[in-house]
TrEMBL record:
One of its GO terms (molecular function) is histidinol-phosphate transaminase activity. CDD domains: AAT_like. Belongs to the class-II pyridoxal-phosphate-dependent aminotransferase family. Histidinol-phosphate aminotransferase subfamily. Gene3D superfamilies: Aspartate Aminotransferase, domain 1, Type I PLP-dependent aspartate aminotransferase-like (Major domain). The lineage of its organism: Bacteria, Bacillati, Actinomycetota, Actinomycetes, Micrococcales. PROSITE patterns: AA_TRANSFER_CLASS_2 (PS00599). Its EC number is 2.6.1.9. SUPFAM superfamilies: PLP-dependent transferases (SSF53383). Signal peptide: none annotated. This is Histidinol-phosphate aminotransferase. GO terms for biological process: L-histidine biosynthetic process.
Length: 362
């Protein structure tokens, strides 16, 4: 049998592991921060109609510039953004890949603040760049000083700030983002995949876009929009940043079906986002109830909670799996991460955790 190592793959890819969050059929899947609610039926009908309109024309390539979708994304985001400031791709992972292809690449360096999203190092290595990390404070926050020092030390070509941060749920102040931008001559990507779940009053980096042409704010329809299966991510930036990624994107990268589905979903944004509040309630409930069980959850602005104070994360993971509940061991000592599910799913998780936390009786 041929092994991976027997193939003439790039030397810098040898020994790496692919992204591999388990995909198992379980009763309660709260391991990859998906939205637990189905696409609402009214929206599903609108999507079917929009896709039906596209079907006869599928012999032709789609609109390479996905003009209608960019208009809808601009009006969804507000902040006086214009369609030429928007760009979309097959998930924000592809957004990130396109940005790294054009602003990083061989011989260049990408900085992020760990712990953060596990795809950043994989995407970085995929484009042949060096991935470097800087640390957060003891509550996983990045202060303006930490950001400035790290950027001055590492001189990155691309800096990625994730806020709210995966896997910790931590938000980031606009002061930190401004400080990072001011400290770098490279591109600053702010990954706001979980933006819609922030507590009220928490700002978005979209506010900082005017006058900052090296700032890119990335978003996704995978989480709040309950659209992970469709693969739609997007960014907002100066129009010239969209020109830059046009240099590397594959022609016609967004299929006509994707464009139609995303457009129809955005036309129903209010309905699509209808469960965000319910998810935020479950998120805050997890923080409260696991605290009562004696754990130390980190404050979360996202749709998941990183729970600290876990003596044996592996045992909790296995104990949950025995109860048909899939959570995430993100490899941070003393923690597990759980996504906020429906009220029922969250109750199942909390009941299981209470059981697993009870001191063993003789
Ligand atoms: C889930 C997630 C995304 C979304 O990725 P898609 O490719 O849009 O599904 C992006 N960034 C972070 C930090 C995430 O956790």
């Amino acid at each position: 049998m041929t092994q991976l190592d027997d193939l003439p793959i790039r030397d810098d890819l040898r020994g790496l592991s692919p992204y591999g969050a388990p995909q198992q059929p379980v009763r309660v899947a709260i391991n990859v921060n998906e939205n637990p609610y189905h696409v609402p039926e009214v929206v599903a009908h609108r999507i079917v109609e929009a896709i039906a309109r596209e079907l006869p024309g599928l012999n032709r390539y789609p609109d390479r510039e996905f003009t209608a979708l960019r208009e809808k994304l601009a009006s969804y985001l507000g902040h006086d953004l214009t369609p030429d400031q928007l760009w979309a791709a097959n998930g924000s992972n592809e957004i990130m890949q396109q940005l790294l292809q054009v602003f990083a690449g061989p011989g260049r360096r990408v900085l992020s603040f760990s712990p953060s999203y596990s795809m950043y190092p994989l995407l970085t290595r995929g484009v042949g760049s060096e991935f470097v990390t800087a640390s957060r404070d003891d509550r996983f926050a990045v202060t303006p000083e930490l950001a400035r020092e790290a950027i001055e030390r590492e001189q990155p070509d691309v800096t990625i700030l994730c806020t709210p941060n995966n896997p910790t749920g931590t938000g980031m102040s606009l002061e930190t983002i401004e400080a990072a931008y001011a400290a770098t001559t490279g591109v600053l990507i702010v990954d706001e995949a979980y933006a819609e779940f922030r507590h009220d009053g928490e700002p978005s980096a979209l506010e900082l876009l005017p006058g900052r042409e090296r700032l890119v704010v990335s978003r996704t329809m995978s989480k709040a929009f309950a659209f992970a299966g469709v693969r739609v991510g997007y960014f907002a930036a100066a129009p010239v940043v969209a020109d830059a990624v046009r240099l590397v994107r594959l022609p016609y990268h967004l299929s006509a079906l994707t464009q139609a589905a995303a457009g129809a979903a955005l036309d129903c944004a209010d309905v699509m986002l209808g469960q965000v509040e319910a998810i935020r309630v479950q998120r805050d409930r997890i923080v409260e109830e696991v605290t009562a069980l004696g754990y130390a959850p980190y404050p979360s602005e996202a749709n998941f909670v990183l729970i600290g104070g876990v003596d044996d994360p592996r045992a909790i993971f296995e104990g949950m799996l025995e109860r048909d509940i899939l959570i995430r061991d993100v490899g941070l000592p003393g923690t597990v991460r759980v996504s906020a599910g429906t009220e029922e799913e969250t109750s199942a998780f909390l009941a299981a955790l209470a059981e697993l936390s009870r001191p063993a009786t003789a």
